[in-house]
Write a structure and sequence with these properties.
This protein is of the alpha+beta class. It has one domain. It has two helices and four strands. Strands 1-4-3-2 form a four-stranded antiparallel sheet, with helices on one face.
């Protein structure tokens, strides 16, 4: 699943990148384990401990076998909670 940022307002950009201006950043990629989104004790990662989330300048890319887990991860990543 690819989720695009139509207005170039990527919430994963850091403060320094924002200061440079989005048009001056040619490439951006952040890769982290999906289970990092589920750090609270009362939340379950549901077998997504080996999967990664890729964040690019213009999109988030999530690959997973389970639609239920994919939906959970997408909501968690987009809400940034």
């Amino acid at each position: 699943m690819d989720i695009y940022y139509p207005t170039k307002q990527n919430p994963f950009f850091g403060l320094m990148i924002q200061r440079l201006g989005v048009d001056n950043v040619k490439q951006f990629e952040c890769v982290f384990p999906i289970n990092a989104l589920f750090i609270e004790k009362n939340q379950s990662a549901d077998n997504i401990d080996r999967e990664v989330l890729r964040v690019f300048k213009e999109k988030i890319s999530i690959n997973h076998r389970s639609f239920d887990s994919l939906e959970k991860v997408a909501l968690k990543a987009l809400m940034l909670r």
